[in-house]
Amino acid sequence: MPPAPIPSHVPEHRVHRFDFRDQDGLRHDPWTYLAGMSDLPDIFFSPDLGGYWVVTRAALIDEVFCDHERFTATSLAIPRIENPMTLIPNHFDPPRHGVYRKLMANGMFSPRALATLEPDTRRLTLDLFDGFAPGTCEFVHDFAYRLPIDIFLELMGADAAYRDECLHFIKLVFRGTTLAQTTEGFVAANAFVTRWLDAQVAAPAANAGPMFQAMLAARIEGRPLNVEEMRAITMMLFMGGLDTITSQMTHIMRFLAESPGHRQALIDRPETIPVALEELLRRFGISYIGRAVATDFTWRGVELRRGDAVCAATPIAGLDRRAFPDPLVVDFDRAGAGRRVKHLGFGSGPHLCIGAHLARVQLTVMLQELLPRMPGLRVAAGHAIENLPGSTMMLKALPLQWNC
Ligand code: HEM
């Protein structure tokens, strides 16, 4: 995509090139590159991806997430897409957002719907481990792509045989390098979800998925959700809940494979994993989230115009040295022994990730179950690890070896 013209309200000293989908620095060593962004202005304008504002201070990124009156979620995509598919609840601002959010939190994401999440995750994790060749796996495809989708399909009561079809459109949407590929992914996802939902709604009693049943039981202003709403919610979960966990897993496992001290600390004291995980989520943020400016206003001395795109990036927030001294250092006690570091890895404000508990359980169980079974874990020698930039950052492949 050629650089966009610089709008007249953007001063020259605020212009800096940054393409989070295709930046060289993000392919080689994304974390050092992103930590270096603390040296740039707090808010700068990139002519890439159609032209958008990038916020580099964690405190301001938090403000973008929280201030829905000035930063609307009704336009999330960067670059902007005309007539995007509505994803519920992400595409709505309060108060409309809150109606759907509440219904999802009280039903689909309630403790009741997720009652067997932890044992199910443990079972599926061990099944996947048992499927590895002795002492070796290609972690991205053998594990990180599989666990989140297998769990999600179970929760929705969908057949595990759909895994490959779903992975196909997820990869197109998130890893596509052209607009044509991402559009193809969305169209395929929509066709799948529509076909699958129609079949479930026609015979709901046959579906044993607690998340699907909660969606069916949900009431909005006294009525059940219509199929269109169910489709927009299901699409949202496919788009928000799969590639994100996969991406997060790849960076965390790579770090632990290359850092025996941190790994051993978690093996020796597995009860500290939930606290350590928060530091890993801070250090390896993955999501570039979009908003649009809702009204002309001046923000911290910067003139913003209605419709301007703004990027709130969780990896930039987590590596902001004004919020986290020595941000590249992984320090499980960063917030004090036994205390969880506060980070923006799951966003903040009204749209704070509703699947955060699901993600934390999967990541915690992965660390609890895999690390002790992989003594001497290391990245297989002779492989260059390739980072894939995109709206979530992930590793293309992660060949691992351990002693057995
Ligand atoms: C490590 C894994 C995950 C990460 C890093 C992550 C990150 C995020 C972030 C940053 C947001 C805020 C978006 C915004 O402000 O516009 C968000 C929202 C959301 N996430 Fe996640 N997410 C993860 C896992 C999941 C899972 C497992 C699910 C569900 C299956 C999920 C479903 C959602 C939904 C539905 C929203 C929109 C919530 C709303 O608009 O109220 N996410 N996520």
Automatic annotation (TrEMBL):
SUPFAM superfamilies according to UniProt: Cytochrome P450
Organism field: Sphingomonas liriopis
GO molecular function, one term: oxidoreductase activity, acting on paired donors, with incorporation or reduction of molecular oxygen
Cofactors that this protein relies on: heme
Gene3D superfamilies per UniProt: Cytochrome P450
A matching Pfam family: p450
Binding annotation for heme: C353
Keywords associated with the record: Heme, Iron, Metal-binding, Monooxygenase, Oxidoreductase
Family: Belongs to the cytochrome P450 family.
InterPro entries: Cyt_P450, Cyt_P450_CS, Cyt_P450_E_grp-I, Cyt_P450_sf
Protein name: Cytochrome P450
